[in-house]
Amino acid sequence: MSGTPTTVSPSGTKTALVPRITTSAITINNLGTVRKLNSVIFPVKYSDSFYKSIVQPEVEDYCRLIYFNDIPVGTTCSRIEKGSKEGESKLYMMTMGVLAPYRNFSIGTAALDEIILAASTPPPTIDAKHPRITHIYLHVQTSNTDARRFYEKCGFKVVSEVQEYYKRLEPRNAWLLEKEIAPPPPPDQP
Amino acid sequence: MSKVVGLPGVPKNRILASKEAALFRTVLQLYETRQWKRGLKTADQILKKNPDHGETLSMRGLILTNLNRKEEGQECVKKGVRMDLTSHICWHVFGLVHKADRNYEEALKCYTQALKFEKDNLNILRDAAHLQMQLRHFDQLVETRQILLKNRVNVRQSWAAMAIAYHLNGQLESATKVLELYERTVKDIPPYDPEHSEFLLYHIAILEEMGSHSEALNLLDVSAKSRSITDRSMISIFRARLLHKLERSEEAREVWVSLIEANTECYDHYKGYLSTQSLDLDSQDSETRKLSMVTLRRFAEQYPKAVAPRRILLELSAGDEFKEIVEHYLLHGITRGIPSLFADIKDLYVSPEKREVIQDIVEGIRTKLEKGGTSSEPPTTYIWTMYFLVQHYSSMPSTIPHALSLVDEAIAHTPTLPELYVAKARALKRTGDPLGASATMGAAWRLDLQDRFLNTKYAKYLLRAGFIEEGNKTLGLFTKKGASSPGADLEDMQSFFYMLEEGDAQNRAGRLNLALKRYHTAFKTFDDVEDDQYDFHSYAVRKYTFRTYLQFIKVEDRLRSHPAYAHAALAASKIYIRLFDSPKLASPTAGLTDAQKKAAKKAKKAELKQQEDAKKASQPAATDDSEVAAIKDDDPEGLKLLAAPDPLDRAAKLLSPLQQLRPELLDTWLVSYDVAIRRKRYLQALKALNHAKSIDKNGAEVHSRVIELKTKGTLPPSSNPASQLIPADQSLEAFNSAFLQRHSTSAPHIVAAARGMVYIRGADGPRADVEDLVFQLTREEVEADVPTSLQALSFLRDTLRSSRVEEFRVACDARFPLATVFKDEKSSPRFMHPECSILFNPVRTATSQRSWRCDVDTFIATGVEEFPCILY
After folding, report:
1. Strand pairing category for A71-82 and A21-25
2. Distance from CA of A18 to the nearest CA of B (A)
3. Taking the model in full, what pTM does it have?
4. CB within 8 Å: A1 and B339
5. Rounded-to-integer distance, Cα B560 and Cα B256, Å
6. Domain N-acetyltransferase: where (chain A) (predicted)?
7. Which of A44, B21, B274, B453 has the most other CB atoms within 10 Å of its CB?
């Protein structure tokens, strides 16, 4: 930790340390940390198949452990779904959460920005095998207005309210939020 | 050895016909190129015609030893020497065989013989010099080096080797003369030639050692100016030191300042600077300390990022001044999230006053953070504060429960910081709960399977808790995949940690054979390190690293002062003592329950199978001419070690390096005493005890042994210095009870007095009041800890064969509620940690053929949620 960067203001006096927010891929080796975080953050217990799916290489950019000053404090997991057309796909965010004491430090925003950026970077050639992500969507429980505001701030829009989405949680309804990813600009003409 | 020519005057039986002579040259060539099998065939061809040709016989034997047919080879070599007593080849070969056998004395004798018949053979001379170095025969070394130098004047290395020989033999004057002579003869050396630079630095170092400081400084300045020395920082360090020794303090100080500027974290530079003000950091004198602090404060201000001056100031300062410095130091460490902060400053805890100041400051930080709510400090500052406090409270037995409640709070706040679990595991270990400790360490381990530190820690805690197999499997996640077992790889890697921890674990489990085996692997490793230095006698001179080489020689001389040697030697000696006291332990299954025996049998079967598999796998590769099958361990289970007929002699042999190199260690003398008294060497025993007493005057361990010696030993009355141990006018009983009165609230001393009573009354004396005495440990006002209570428990059980063992166990259990070592295995539900039960479910280990890798996956899968070990 000795390499902690300090910010030195132009006058040369030391200011408070800027917290570092970083992410890393979820792997079989740090799955224990992911499990620990999920068990603390979410009221739902996730299945083994969930954990198997999030270590797959194709979702590496979308399933991340989030670190705050080098301590893992949050996770986010997504899966890639088929789009409406060939060469298109949708990203469904399954989970996104940060430990309670670490909220309000823009950790979630930073992580979400990273995912949006990854989703907006299209594969070099778009075809059936390498589809482009057109939308990111997710569900938010209707009681969780904080979360709704958070996603709306990041450019998501409520598309609909899904009835009876949650089987074992109250309230059972969920908002469906979606963000459109702009298509890549056409290649420059030489 | 490459030239064998029929010289005039050679004995007839050495001369071969030209065809055979050619074949013999081939043999030599084949040997040099390590084509041993072909070499053997060729030698046999010669011997068909000349069965008594000594040199061929010798070469044949040498080749055989390299093919792992050692005994046959040695026989053949000996026969060769007998056939041709005046052949330098025969003697040289004989020497080589001895050397390969690590028999350096004998090897050197053979070389000396060989040199009688071939005075100027450079190969033999060089080998002889290395042997003389290995054996530290410096006077002989000087002679050999003189001959070598005469023969190879034009080689740089001969000069250096000569100087080193003189240097080691204490002839510093001659050493410098050699170097001067050399420096005068060499010409046209390009600037910054690294090899020449080392020569000069070595020369300067010798001059400094001789006390010729001005000459040394002169040579340094001249060489530095002529761009002959490459190592710039070395120039400065030598310069500063020499100027100081020449009492040119002002100049010395300037050089030290430039060194500090270049590296603000080197303690030696600060020490050097202070020495120019005649200040010594280790001095306890308050005036000296004050002056040192003034200087260091100036440096601290000048280099705001330097840690070293601040850390030294913490050592020197006291009172308010300390408070001010340490507050800044702690705040800096905590806000930066430096995990090692506590480890860094815990040295200061020798002063209870400083300990308290630190506690107040960090508690203050915590209160501020808790009150502040969402202040500007990130939550990581809070968690590092908590982490520090947990370690702080864990360092004192009385505050460990507080540490445990704090750590649970911290884990609830941030459950993903492995350090917290590690700290918790350590606290649990200290309360005497190895099971809970290992389970908690497992929780840390599971957070990051890629972390080798956590993996090793977890394995260690498993071993400590008695889960030997599981510990080994855990270690196996990071060892070489092709190794026959994780342990085998770790032993190859000379991991003392593994040898000692596994040895201790086997020792605790009562498998003395395996414990001895592991300790002996450690001894063998020390032998290997000692042998390995042989190669450096030539290498270091060839690479011009003279100063480092001489340091290295000093390290090798004190090799067995290493803590790992002390640990292994003491533990193994204690086992040998146990074996002597109860020889029935020497049967390997003694002391094991039926279930353990069964498990052992199974393990053996599995191992055999594994060995066979390994054999099958390695077979096809063994066809190469140079390939030689590895030497098999003829005692993999340590059973031969266990059955040794002379356990005490072996122990004495292990202890003697410690008496030389670690005389400050109390255990060295206690165990030496234990061995000596059993060997009926009463004077040795007395000597050991006197040493022990000088280290720990009122020691409990010393006391019981004094009484034992008095009751058992029959010392010659004239030379009876035992009277120093016990006042002459005092009876043993009075001596014992006086001791007890002096230390009536200290558990170890009470146990010692109880032991003393047993010695005084003999094996069949009354026991009731001895038992009562041990039960004193259960009283509130007696300061008892877990280890001493465990010792008392085994004293009741094994020595007294008391009927009140169970009663004592229950009392200890009540006194140490957090400890599991006093639990009754059958009745206590708490003993079965949930984590342990999934980890070590006997049903699974018995039926499952699944690999460990698979088990690891199951942990991750069934994992943390269902079995939150942190909540038990």
Report:
1. unpaired
2. 9
3. 0.86
4. yes
5. 35
6. 21-182
7. B274
A92 is an active site residue: yes
Helix (H) or strand (E) holding A74: strand A71-82
Residues of chain B in contact with residue A48, where contact means CB-CB under 8 angstroms, are 861
Q: How far apart are CA A17 and CA A8, in angstroms?
A: 9
Give the tokens for residue B266. Answer: 């080197």
| Residue B548 near residue B540 (C-beta atoms within 8 A) | yes
d(CA B713, CA B692): 17
Assigned token pair, B455: 């993996």
Give me the pLDDT at residue B588, please: 54
Say how many CB pairs under 8 Å bridge A and B.
79
pLDDT tens digits for range B755-789:
999 999 887 778 888 999 999 998 888 988 899 99
Fold of A19-180: Aminopeptidase (3.40.630)
pLDDT at B298 over 90: yes
CATH number 1.25.40.10 is the correct assignment for the domain at B1-119? yes
What integer is the mean pLDDT of B34-59?
88
CA dihedral in degrees (B28, B30, B33, B38; nearest 10)?
-150
| Active site annotation includes A139 | yes
- Cβ neighbours of B869 in A, within 8 Å: none
Asked if the Cβ–Cβ distance from B447 to A36 is below 8 Å, we say yes
Q: Which residue, among B652, B748, B735, has the nearest Cα to B701 in the 3D structure?
A: B748
- Where is average pLDDT lowest: A119-123, B447-451, B810-814? A119-123
Q: Which of B342, B369, B375, B416 to mutate to test the interface with A (most CBs of A within 10 A)?
A: B416
How far is it, in rounded angstroms, from Cα B837 to Cα B467?
A: 12
Tokens of B483: 């190794």
Q: How confident is the model at residue B725 (pLDDT cuts 50, 70, 90)?
A: confident
